[in-house]
Design a protein that fits this description.
With 217 residues, the chain is an alpha/beta fold. It contains 5 helices and 8 strands.
Length: 217
């Protein structure tokens, strides 16, 4: 399985070059987002909110941060402003509660990226094919250690992410507009006329062409 490596630390100077992505916080006691973006230009930097009512690409659902009940309003607010599949970070043990609240709010699992925290099981992404943590579905990424080597002998958090974690929203196909004919009343299209008559637009065009030819001088 192809994966991405993401680093995370409340001290940006401890992060090292070479990771595929970095996690940073947009608010709270350690607002690191701007510093991490400046330090690693061109890299994916996942901005996370640690309180409700703040805009970010994702939210941190754990003790002292968002509660499971605050996650659905956050997700809806981010989707409303155009964020594709907002990220929800939670410990593996808390994920079933988070998903239950999302489901109750009408938000399916497919509408979010699920980033779990699960230490002590080695490098993995949580799910039935990974650590098999009870009640945890396949995740989009897992923070699997808080002791990865950082700069200057420090220890930092490290996650594995699915290779498509930062993929943009798929482009919707552009509808193909068929030939349109407007009647004398200026309201009905050829497609509407055909539907009302129980036939196809091409049939109407063919019949019209025949009759036009019959009355030609």
């Amino acid at each position: 399985m192809t994966t991405l490596t993401m680093q995370d630390s409340i001290y940006p100077q401890n992060l090292t070059p070479g990771a595929d992505a970095y996690l940073a916080y947009v608010n709270g006691k350690w607002p690191t987002y701007k510093a991490v973006v400046a330090r690693f230009p061109g890299k994916h930097v996942l901005g996370m909110a640690v309180t409700a009512g703040v805009d970010a690409e994702g939210c941190d659902c754990e003790q002292w941060d968002l509660t499971a009940g605050q996650v659905p309003p956050f997700v809806k607010a981010q989707m409303a402003r155009g964020v594709y599949r907002p990220v929800v970070y939670a410990s593996a043990s808390n994920i079933p509660a988070v998903l239950a609240d999302l489901t109750a709010a009408g938000i399916p699992r497919s509408d979010i990226r699920l980033l779990s925290a699960h230490y002590g099981a080695g490098e993995h992404i949580c799910g039935p094919a990974g650590c098999k943590y009870p009640g945890v579905p396949p995740c989009d990424g897992t923070q699997w250690t808080d002791a990865a080597p950082g700069a200057g002998g420090s220890k930092i958090d490290q996650s594995w992410l699915l290779a498509n974690f930062f993929d943009p929203a798929p482009k919707l196909p552009v509808p193909v507009q068929g030939p349109v004919t407007v009647t004398a009343d200026g309201k009905k299209s050829l497609a509407q006329i055909a539907a009302a008559a129980g036939t196809q637009p091409s049939t109407i065009l063919r019949v019209t062409a025949i009759h036009d030819g019959a009355f030609a001088p």
